[in-house]
Amino acid sequence: MTNFTKKTESKSEILWVAIVRVIGALMFVLPMYLPMKAYLFTDIQNVVMSLNDMAFSCVGFLLFAGGKNLGVLANNIGIAINNVLTKLTK
Questions:
Q1: What is the DSSP string of 7-25?
Q2: Exposed, middle or buried by CB within 10 Å (0-12, 13-18, 19+), for 67?
Q3: Residue-wise over 16-50: b if at least 16 C-beta within 10 A, else e?
Q4: Helix crossing, 11-29 with 67-89: angle to 10°?
Q5: How far apart are CA 73 and CA 69, in angstroms?
Q6: Sequence spans of domains, the chain
Q7: DSSP state, 10?
Q8: Quick check: 1 pLDDT over 50?
């Protein structure tokens, strides 16, 4: 069985890490946009974050914080799938 947490330091792994971190950063910041805008500008009605917004933001933070591990995992799963497909098509 393949070890899915082994780092390969390839360009595709760096790309996967960056993609996971960007998605996590967006998921973390987007639910807080309207409440922060309402807090900073006085002419906007106060907006409260719902429980779904808080959960979405927490998932985004976890994706951003664990982006390196999740990116490595995604890259290694892709390598394993590629190896299996290569063996099946030969």
A1: ----HHHHHHHHHHHHHHH
A2: buried
A3: bbeebbeebeebbeebbebeeeeeeeeeeeeeeee
A4: 130
A5: 6
A6: 11-89
A7: -
A8: no
Q: Tokens representing 47?
A: 């907006």
Question: Does 67 have pLDDT greater than 80?
Answer: no
Question: CA nearest 20: which of 79, 55, 68?
Answer: 68
Coil, helix or strand at residue 9: coil
- Is the CB of residue 63 less than 8 Å from the CB of residue 19? no
Q: Which two tokens stand for residue 76?
A: 């290694």
For the stretch 22-66, pLDDT in tens is: 888 898 888 888 888 878 887 777 778 888 988 988 888 888 887
Six-digit token string for 38:
């309402």
pLDDT per residue as tens digits for the range 69-90: 777 777 788 888 888 888 888 7
